[in-house]
Amino acid sequence: GPSSAQTMTPAAHEWVIRCRLGGAGRKAWAEDITPLADAVQGTQSTRQILKALTAFDNKGHLTRVVELATNGDRLLDAISSLANDTDATSNEKIVILTRLLSKARGLLDEDDGEAEGEEKKADAAARKPKAERRAEKIRANQGQQDKITDEQSKEIVKQLLDLSYDVFVRGKAAATGKYTKFAEWAIKKNLVSDDYKQVIERIEAESQKALLGQANNLELLLNLKSGEVTEPDFVTLLDSLTDADKNCFTTTGVDVLSAIAVTAGKFTENASLMESIVERLVNTHKEAQGTLQLPRRVMAFIATQRQKKEQTQVNEFRKKREREDAEKFGTGGNPNKGGRRVEKTATEYVEEEL
Question: For the residues of 25-45, what is the DSSP string, one character each?
């Protein structure tokens, strides 16, 4: 498979892009070319070939798609390519999308500026010689193909805002400012409705809340690491950090979770407290839905407590079995011990119970 070290030249990427936009990936594209149709039928379809070439240097391909986005159709294609991509990392998407936002703003601002100066250009052109006016008209007709219509502009901005929300906001990329900045620009240009102001306000409020949460986490961390936390204070602190409905911690800060695990090690004699902490840590990991990797100390704490719980259960079953043997066989115990195997071991009972 392709590695991150493999790259293609910009010209090669451009060739792949032109082939795709020219319809080379469609089923009927090679049907009227007999030699190519025979070759493709026996190996891979043109769609598969283009897909393989794209995956060879996926980041370079997406970057080139953005660079070649010089009109409305190309901008929409760049948005679609990035939105449907499943190979780029979150950081790569952030970088490429940031470039795409800048590219879109530049092109849309440029078209807007051209529209505002149209009358002035017309007046100046009327005073130029006829041959020069004819040449400018030809160039204008060629450039008209690249002009972005008002309808396209609004559709481009809408799709960019949707994609930016997924990458910058919903993806928790710590780059929400990129979304709000672009949205504010779009509102100012009358490319989207004022309803987006409410979205911006909500995102900014959530960002402020996140900053306060980071400050609180720092304070909690300092308290936990002070080494002076008593068990009642520790329990109170844990309860204040717990979502009662989901029985998980409200913070996913790895430093805080790690400090909780370390501090809990001072109160291991309280088995119910240890079990409660383990449950909350595990539930916190589940609620994060793959976005949280528990620190090594937390994983070690969970594993240790589970081993202790299992050993306690084994010991309880062993004692229970010994009492049953004593009642059945007398004080001499089970005559099968040391000889014929008993029906089940204590560990097997535990496994059945779990």
Answer: TSTTTTTT-HHHHHHHHHS--
Q: Is the pLDDT of residue 3 over 80?
A: no
Total Cβ atoms within 10 A of residue 58: 18
Both structure tokens of 265 = 């090690």
SS3 call for 24: coil
Burial bucket for residue 341 (CB in 10 Å: 0-12, 13-18, 19+): exposed
**Over pLDDT 90: what percentage of the chain?**
28
Whether the model clears a pTM of 0.85, i.e. scores above it, the answer is no
Token look-up 């800060």 returns 253
Q: What is the CA radius of gyration of the chain?
A: 33
Three-class DSSP category at 18: helix
pLDDT digits (tens, 9 = 90+) for 7-45: 889 899 989 888 888 877 666 655 655 555 555 554 457
pLDDT digits (tens, 9 = 90+) for 141-160: 444 556 888 999 999 999 99
Determine the Cα angle at 245 with ends 239 and 247, to 5°: 55
Contact 46, 29 (CB under 8 A): yes
**Cross-strand bridge partners of residue 248:** 243
Q: Distance (Å, rounded) from C-alpha 90 to C-alpha 102?
A: 18
146: β partners? none
Which residue, among 214, 311, 217, 305, has the nearest Cα to 259 in the 3D structure?
217
Q: How many angstroms separate the CA atoms of 354 and 348, rounded?
A: 10
**What CA–CA distance (Å, rounded) separates 95 from 105?**
16
Residue 8 is which amino acid? M
The residue type found at 341 is: R
Asked if residues 148 and 103 have their Cβ atoms less than 8 Å apart, the reply is: no
Q: Identify which of 334, 336, 335 has the alpha carbon closest to the alpha carbon of residue 321.
A: 334
Structure tokens at 296: 């090594």
Specify the residue for token string 């090669």: 12
Ramachandran sector of residue 344 (left: φ over 0; alpha: ψ -120 to 50; beta: rest): beta
